[in-house]
Amino acid sequence: MATTPAPRNGETDVRLVVASSVFGTTVEWYDFFLYGTAAGLVFNKLYFPGSDPLVGTVLAFATFALGFLARPIGGFVFGHLGDRVGRKKILVATMLIMGTATCLIGLLPDYQMIGPAAPIILVVLRLAQGVAVGGEWGGAVLMATEYAPAGKRGLYGSFPQIGLAIGLTLGTGVLALLNAITSDAAFLSWGWRIGFLLSAVLVLAGLVIRVKVMETPAFRTMAAEEGTATVPAVELVRDKLSRRHLLLGMGSRFTEGVAFNAWAVFVISYGSGTLKLDRQPLLVGVMIAAAVMVVFIPVFGRVSDRFGRRRTFTTGAVTTLVLAIPALAALHSGNPVLITLSLVAVLGISYPVMYGPQAAFYAELFPISRRCTGISVVYQLSGVVASGLTPLILAYLAGRTGTTGIMVYLAATTVISVVCTLAIRQSDLFDDEEVRTSRPVKEVPRVS
Description:
Largest sheet: none
Number of strands: 0
């Protein structure tokens, strides 16, 4: 069969791909985590009113978790389409779904106006957000990693990961600004809605960039030479190595998902609700930590190119756990400076040691023909517990056992992730040069 070489990608194409990946994931995560921040500050009061503030907070975080339950659905559906028709096409659809859902949340009347219909509609829109971000991540990181030059897959794969940090910075920053310039009554009445309605502007700009990007060279070459997988999910389950990588990949991600949602989401409601701290320093602290994260995600993505994904990821998992101890102590001290410094250390610097190399690490677990489905399942299915339930679990443990329960949970998830990460054999990782044989690289001194 004649070989159809992939078109050469010049620097302009690569820069456009990077810009599209970063901006697209920024919009998706801004929308997704704007909800998480608002859940502990607004939704518990407006959509789940009651005499017990704790019950309202738990219910608000339950809807937050529902978004993560929907993410595997988006991962399966759009992962399948990404392996069948290409990475690019699914990214336009996911951005439209996310932007529409977020804007509608900003327009949604509260419980006092329309009664039980308010939380029901909120849940439906949150599910739509989950489906959208579930399909976004896999396509976005593959656009970057499959365009990456030799020896720089970790660096290029980290670029869409930056979108999480920027999205978190914008999400918390916008709500912090609106909280600062409006009264409490105004913020609860209409101020918070501005942050959600801003999504329309971001989505429009993202679509303009995204439609200009070509399909990845790896996918085009694979489709031309071998054809796409008929049912990628079925092929994943049938293949012994793919099954192994699905399970180990989900286990390895456990502590990453828990760490992010502990220090970027739960910390705000725990500090302002349980510890009775002013919410403004907490919002600002998370925002500053997220801004620092923007710098360190590509740093550690590049480090993984030189020292290996497993070693880098494991180091980040252990370091983040160790730093959780002083971070909790700083939170209980109530000192805004100490809180900010601790959040910068654990969320801004240590967490990126895991998150920076993650995209390249998971992309190398699967062959190109079923890669979008594989990494989407790994990331999104594990996220149901690792990310979506974390604020809910930690809120329960904090109410029952205080910081002891929190630390035990963080330690347990770290052990699981470290064991699973080290169980992934370097010799079983896939390189795009192996597309014609679909066999893993047997000797990889440095995976490119």
